[in-house]
What we know:
The complex is a heterodimer.
Chain A: H1 3-18, H2 31-34, H3 38-52, H4 73-88
Helix pairs in contact in A: 1-3, 1-4
Chain B: E1 4-13, H1 19-28, E2 34-35, E3 48-49, H2 57-60, H3 71-87, E4 97-102, H4 108-120, H5 130-134, H6 138-147, E5 153-156, H7 162-176, E6 181-188, H8 193-200, E7 225-233, H9 234-239, E8 246-255, H10 267-279, E9 286-290, H11 297-311, E10 318-319, H12 322-325, H13 332-346, E11 348-349, E12 372-373, E13 378-385, E14 389-397
Parallel strand pairs in B: 4-5, 4-6, 9-10, 9-13
Antiparallel strand pairs in B: 1-7, 1-8, 2-3, 6-7, 8-14, 11-12, 13-14
Amino acid sequence: MTRGEIEADVIAILARQLLLAPAEIAPDAGIDALGLDSLGKAEAIFALEERFDITVPFNANEPDQPEFDFTSVNSIVRGVEELIARKAG
Amino acid sequence: MRRVVVTGIGTVNALALDVPGTFNAFREGRCGIGPLGFRDADRLTIRIGAEVRDWRAEEHFAAKDLPLLDRVTQYALMAGAEAMAMAGLPDGIGARGGVILGTAAGGIQTWEDSYRAVFAEGRNRVSPLVVPRLMHNAPASHLSIRHGLSGPVLAVSSACASANHAMGLAVQQIRMGSADVMLTGGAEAMLCFGGVKAWEGLRVLAPDACRPFSLGRKGMVIGDGAGVLVFEAEDHARARGAFVLAEVAGFGMSADAADIVAPGGDGAARAMRAALADAGLSQTDIGYINAHGTGTLANDRAESAAILQVFGANPPPVSSTKAMHGHAIGATGALEAMACILALTEGVLPPTLGFQASDPDCPLDVIPDGARVARVEAVLSNAFAFGGLNAVLAFRRA
């Protein structure tokens, strides 16, 4: 998958959670600023795992999330890219 | 109004299969958390829990009874037998006795085994005993049958507050005069593949250890077990010369009516205040709080704020025994009632294990360095559940 395809899918997943149109979510948007709550985050991660067939190492109790950066659309796309690459490797 | 006292206690949990062993573990600060050993645990991301180790049901139950007993009921019956033996009640309590028991997941292992049989293994039928095994009231009903208690009997299910709600309702039955004796508490056996898999999705389970109120905590660790207490009208207990362990002085409950999972608002503080008021206790009477203290970022922060709101800048010592017996969900309040009874009867406050460093959001004395000796007159036991449900009990020295 290209980065653009991953980004489009990540945005589509977030848009479904946030009840927004994909066009309303910019690639540099912050997740908290978008208004995603903790349960929404858990659902979005589940959707990412199902969509890309990956396991996202995310624990809601670690605010700095050393293993997976969930702070912005861009950081999520980078994280998904890495996990896909790791799976292939 | 009739006072309510505790005249017997029993438990099965990850620390021990009885009360003396559990009290020893509380004194020693022993941890019951370890690698999960059940079927398909290797397919889980989270592989630790506080399982009841070396559980051999066939040693405790007749072969003819076992097909009817999910593990959740086995634990309840074992704990109930210990509690009833301690209480030494005369025969013939009958309709003046009842059972109100909490459980969150009931016979979840039975659901799992049955679904596995029909969906995964392609079988076309399941045991005819599936329904009576898995129903949430199975533990309460089996206790009622075993001990001949034919008054008010029911199950209470309010997630992590189930046992505290059950005990609170049991107190009310005795106060109202509907019963003289109530077996109460909670039982849970959620440590099976489906149970943990479901929790994993919420991303709140710790992969390594339970560290309530500590900086660096990574979440909760699930536990199994049961705690059963004999609640008795004080007049009834005194008249028969029973040994009284403690008084169940008060109960308070509230709902956040806000978020389905996130704690917040003033619900927790209102429940603590309600328990104090119901008990006729003031903040300064409380010498120990057994916290809900799950070890999640959100609970421990919100609970600390609620305790400070109710108790001011200098609250009493607080500990979460979940770092020892795990978060036994619908049974946890009953296991934590054991810790409260230990504090009141022996002056031993169990510690909070796993503590690494103070979290500025949790400015509490959490008894991090091992059990503490302190004479306490009264204690609170908190339980705050998903669904925004809060249930707090106040216990007082007998």
